[in-house]
Automatic annotation (TrEMBL):
Similarity field: Belongs to the 'GDSL' lipolytic enzyme family.
Keyword presence, Transmembrane: yes
SUPFAM superfamilies: SGNH hydrolase
Name of the molecule in the record: Uncharacterized protein
Length: 531
């Protein structure tokens, strides 16, 4: 009888333990799902794109001015010329697709355009600086970046007036709040560099012009910000020394050609431009505290594709698919789509290669649709190409990454009181809640405290606390203790905190501990019950 009762008690105990285990596990799962759901809510859901740029992102601006691009442009995707200097879609088209938005209509194209989800101000040949020569003389568009901004300002101000008329205007123009919630994309600067070379400037002279180019770029970003723009997605320029139209233009010595056949001096200038652009982006983050600015390293992505073409299924990386003649299948006087009159008939002579999907360069200047898709795939798969390292759909988040300044810790080890830091305590917040806690090696210190000020950045979503001891640099870095102080606007520390942020989610941590405890209790009691 006693044995029967003991057996029944053991069974009840086991059943109870199983119930506790299942409840704890389900609770943990619920919290995990809730966290995942909250992370999905961090996606920005951009309702519109406003793009500024050159031919790399022009969807019909230049052709609206000067006539449609010639066949075989557009053949791969659109089946006909579609305002793009490409066999199909551009990077901006794939970015729009990834955000679930329609392809952008060119602002200059008044026929059949739909601006309900943004507008494209880019035109082929555009530069950041105004050109002092006409398009017929230099080959560059008169629609420089300052003109594109003027177009945007006019569109911003007048679209809502027209939209209020209702009907078709309401359907074809963006809602007022879209201008603040939109993402503003920039892909421009290539022509400023190449224009200098086409005017026979030396490399040093081209480099000397870059600070002014960058300054004028920043002026436009500030202008968009002043009119309500908050989310910016900025591409640097690609490896210009690998493009056939530049390789064909120069007489290069063997020492000026790298192992892949690219012109080293041109790529060095591209990198110099990109470093200056990145620096101004850092400055803009400080000057525009409510802006979310993402800097995308297009140069590295394109160089990776060109130098490892075979690995990624491409061939002849420096040879144009559409063109005629020469080492690079490029002739500046007979570009892609050029024709000749033979026996009274117009014959296409600068034609497409047999398989554009295997080629990187389309017409000697621009990339193929296949290459553009590959480039966007890299951006989407590997967020390390972006600074801060975030996917496109989260580019509205305001991050600290890229900020330069001092971080000062109380020498006692725990900076828990603002009085220890002259009132300059800053509590940082992080968006990415799954990152590892900070590593001490990533933090450097200054022993001085001067001019404490409030933080430029008030990042969103989840708080992060840490503590560090100056006397014990190898000390334990908790994910939740202490604070950081920003003082001055100085250069001793390049603080890129986004990579090291950690979410403080006390409830989730508690549930996680409960689950662990439940598992341990279950195993212990099971052993006892079976004895």
């Amino acid at each position: 009888m006693c044995r029967m009762k003991k057996r029944e008690m053991r069974l009840k105990l086991i059943n109870l333990m199983i119930c506790v285990f299942l409840i704890a596990s389900n609770l943990g799962l619920t919290v995990a799902l809730t966290n995942n759901s909250s992370q999905n809510k961090d996606n920005c859901e951009f309702p519109a794109i406003f793009n500024f740029g050159d031919s790399n992102s022009d969807t019909g601006g230049l052709t609206a001015l000067y006539g449609q691009a010639l066949p075989p442009n557009g053949q791969t995707f659109f089946g006909k010329p579609a305002g793009r200097f490409c066999d199909g879609r551009l990077v901006i088209d794939f970015l729009a697709e990834s955000l679930g938005l329609p392809y952008l209509s060119a602002y200059l194209n008044s026929i059949g355009s739909n601006f309900s989800h943004g507008a494209n101000f880019a035109t082929a040949g555009s530069t950041i600086r105004p050109q002092n020569t006409t398009i017929s003389q230099s080959g560059y568009s008169p629609i420089s970046l300052d003109i594109q901004f003027a177009e945007y300002s006019k569109f911003y101000k007048e679209s809502q007036v027209v939209r209020k008329q209702g009907g078709v205007f309401e359907e074809l123009l963006p809602k007022e709040d879209y201008f603040t919630r939109a993402i503003y994309t920039f892909d421009i600067g290539q022509n400023d560099i190449t224009a200098g070379y086409k005017l026979n400037l030396t490399t040093e002279q081209v480099k000397a012009s870059i600070p002014d180019i960058i300054s004028q770029f920043a002026k436009v970003v500030r202008g968009v910000y002043a009119q309500g723009g908050r989310s910016f997605w900025i591409h640097n320029t690609g490896p210009l020394g690998c493009l056939p139209y530049m390789l064909d233009h120069f007489l290069l010595t063997a020492a000026q050609v790298d192992e892949y056949g690219c012109a080293s001096p041109l790529n060095e200038v591209s990198q110099y431009y990109n470093s200056q652009l990145k620096d101004i982006v850092t400055q803009l983050r400080m000057d525009l505290p409510s802006a979310s600015i993402t800097f995308v390293d297009i140069y590295s992505i394109k160089l990776k594709l060109i130098t490892q073409a075979k690995k990624y299924g491409f061939e002849k990386p420096l040879v144009a698919c559409c063109g005629i003649g020469g080492k690079y299948n490029f002739n500046n006087t007979m570009r892609c789509g050029s024709t000749e009159i033979v026996d009274g008939k117009e014959i296409l002579v600068a034609k497409s290669c047999d398989n554009p999907s295997k080629r990187i360069i389309w017409d000697g200047i621009h990339y193929t649709e296949a290459a553009n898709k590959w480039i966007v795939d890299q951006i989407m798969k590997d967020s390390s190409y972006a600074n801060p390292s975030i996917p496109l759909e989260m580019a509205c988040q305001n991050f600290v990454k890229g900020f330069q300044g001092f971080i000062v810790m109380a020498s006692s080890g725990r900076a828990s009181s603002s009085s220890n830091l002259n009132g300059g305590v800053t509590w940082f917040r992080a968006m990415n809640c799954n990152c590892e806690p900070p590593r001490v090696a990533d933090i450097r210190f200054s022993n001085s405290i001067a001019n404490p000020r409030r933080p430029y950045y008030k990042c969103r979503v989840c708080e992060f606390f840490m503590w560090v001891s100056e006397d014990q640099i190898s000390s334990d870095i908790g994910g939740r203790q202490g604070s950081m102080a920003e003082v001055g606007q100085v250069h001793a520390l390049r603080a890129e905190f986004t990579e090291f942020m950690h979410k403080t989610d006390e409830f989730a941590d508690f549930v996680y501990m409960v689950v662990k405890l439940a598992v341990v209790m279950y195993l212990v009691l099971l052993i006892v019950a079976l004895k």
